[in-house]
């Protein structure tokens, strides 16, 4: 029987455990190097034994550990003359004190990152989730031999290394907040797309993130082609909608929106430098006091323009004829101007960043609000439909049948524990690992992973190395 799990995560005691728990990480962060000043040899050995046993095999009873402890420590060294000289590092043999535990199946599962702790690895073994050489193994203390292949059910590895699955109420609250913020973002983006786009780019730079399209060349080229295809579709649509009437409507809108004196430069932003003089002639032909240029804002401008071009009025016949002639000339050149504009906006496939797209906010849609919590309790989570660009389904419950956060996300603070041993060959794609050999010690390093220094292991070894052994 293993030890009872008592005070394993105590922040007061601050013991280091073979676990990926966040409290264990905090204990590791605040841990100071043990000081032996003022202590008797017995106290030094006792404290070292307590510190090392808290990490190495804490689930084993002391009598069990003393039974499997071996005073013979394994180390290797080259047989040539490369170790001669004063620059050779010392071999940390004392770090091999607990090397015998690395053979155990439960410890090997934890070292291979198939479980978040040795105790969880033990549970997986007892529940028939682990196989050794293709045979289900239900003994956590099984000692692996060199060449043994062990595996774990992939869903259990995802559960061990993934974020915990939130309950339904937590997911509901998170999605309510996300919907509120998303709808606010959509509203602001449609009102001022350039300002929001610049703000998004500034946020990326402040976080130290790159504005690169993609790090992968294949993905980058794919996104650039999608961007260019989108521009091409917009070009065709704009050219198809460009007529003499639409050009005259644009001229009227520019004049009505300009409070300063009307000059050819006023039309340059819309029609380009090559057409600004022609467009200005249209304005001069109509005259500053023409009815079309003084229409109220609530009037349908296109309707009045169509009537002006199609209807023949004797009073304005010459003015109509001259205006239609100018608009026809402008229309031909304006179509070419549109084509050149969009061609210049296209991105070369060697580019690293995409330029600003004025229509980027057009595809954004508000999200429908979720129902009340009472409705959810009555009908279940199936009545909740969540569809964000970054999330399909409830927060953390995209696949409610899974026991872990979906879509799968690594558990927080995983990086400090991602240390793979040299005596294991691991395949995370298949959740298999090969036990290559027993861990050994070499000059300057030991293959036994431990957070404690050599002097602590030395005194722990002295504690277990009794007289007569």
UniProtKB/TrEMBL annotation:
Keywords: Mitochondrion, Ribonucleoprotein, Ribosomal protein, RNA-binding, rRNA-binding
Domain RNA-binding S4, residue spans: 103-166
Pfam families hit by this protein: S4
Biological process (GO), any one: ribosomal small subunit biogenesis
Taxonomy, superkingdom: Eukaryota
One MF term in the entry's GO annotations: rRNA binding
InterPro entries recorded: Ribosomal_uS4, S4_RNA-bd, S4_RNA-bd_sf
GO cellular component, one term: mitochondrial small ribosomal subunit
Compartments (UniProt record): Mitochondrion
Stated role: Component of the mitochondrial ribosome (mitoribosome), a dedicated translation machinery responsible for the synthesis of mitochondrial genome-encoded proteins, including at least some of the essential transmembrane subunits of the mitochondrial respiratory chain. The mitoribosomes are attached to the mitochondrial inner membrane and translation products are cotranslationally integrated into the membrane.
Protein name: Small ribosomal subunit protein uS4m
Organism: Komagataella pastoris
Lineage: Eukaryota, Fungi, Dikarya, Ascomycota, Saccharomycotina
């Amino acid at each position: 029987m293993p030890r009872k799990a008592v005070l394993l995560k105590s922040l007061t005691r601050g013991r280091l455990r073979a676990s990926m728990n966040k409290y264990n990480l905090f204990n590791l962060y605040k841990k100071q190097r043990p000081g032996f000043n003022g202590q008797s040899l017995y106290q030094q050995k006792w404290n070292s034994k307590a510190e090392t046993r808290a990490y190495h095999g804490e689930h084993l009873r002391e009598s069990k550990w003393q039974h499997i402890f071996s005073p013979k420590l394994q180390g290797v060294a080259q047989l040539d003359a490369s170790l001669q000289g004063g620059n050779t590092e010392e071999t940390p043999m004392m770090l091999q004190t607990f090397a015998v535990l690395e053979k155990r199946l439960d410890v090997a599962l934890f070292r291979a990152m198939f479980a978040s702790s040795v105790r969880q690895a033990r549970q997986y073994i007892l529940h028939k989730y682990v196989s050794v050489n293709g045979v289900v193994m239900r003994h956590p203390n099984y000692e692996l031999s060199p060449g043994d292949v062990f595996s774990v059910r992939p869903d259990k590895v995802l559960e061990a290394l993934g974020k915990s699955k939130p309950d339904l109420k937590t997911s509901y609250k998170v999605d309510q907040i996300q919907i509120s913020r998303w709808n606010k973002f959509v509203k602001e983006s449609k009102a001022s797309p350039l300002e929001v786009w610049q703000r998004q780019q500034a946020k990326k730079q402040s976080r130290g993130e790159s504005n690169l399209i993609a790090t992968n060349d294949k993905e980058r080229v794919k996104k650039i082609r999608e961007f260019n295809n989108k521009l091409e579709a917009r070009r065709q649509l704009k050219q198809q909608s460009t007529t003499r009437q639409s050009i005259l409507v644009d001229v009227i809108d520019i004049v009505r929106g300009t409070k300063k004196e009307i000059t050819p430069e006023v039309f340059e932003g819309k029609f380009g430098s090559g057409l600004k003089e022609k467009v200005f002639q249209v304005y001069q032909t109509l005259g500053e006091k023409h009815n079309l240029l003084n229409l109220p804002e609530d009037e349908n401008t296109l309707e009045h323009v169509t009537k002006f071009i199609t209807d023949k009025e004797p009073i304005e016949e010459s003015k109509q004829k001259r205006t239609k002639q100018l608009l026809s000339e402008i229309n031909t050149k304006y179509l070419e101007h549109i084509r050149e504009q969009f061609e210049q906006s296209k991105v070369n496939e060697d580019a690293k960043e995409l330029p600003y797209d004025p229509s980027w906010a057009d595809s954004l849609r508000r999200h429908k609000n979720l129902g009340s919590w009472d409705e959810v309790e009555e009908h279940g989570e199936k009545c909740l439909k969540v569809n964000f660009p970054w999330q399909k389904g409830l927060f953390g419950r995209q696949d409610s049948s899974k026991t872990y956060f979906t879509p799968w996300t690594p558990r927080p603070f995983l990086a400090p524990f991602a240390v793979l041993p040299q005596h294991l060959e691991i395949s995370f794609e298949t959740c298999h690992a090969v036990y290559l050999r027993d861990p050994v010690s070499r000059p300057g390093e030991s293959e036994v992973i431990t957070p404690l220094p050599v002097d602590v292991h030395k005194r722990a070894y002295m504690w277990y190395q009794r007289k007569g052994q």
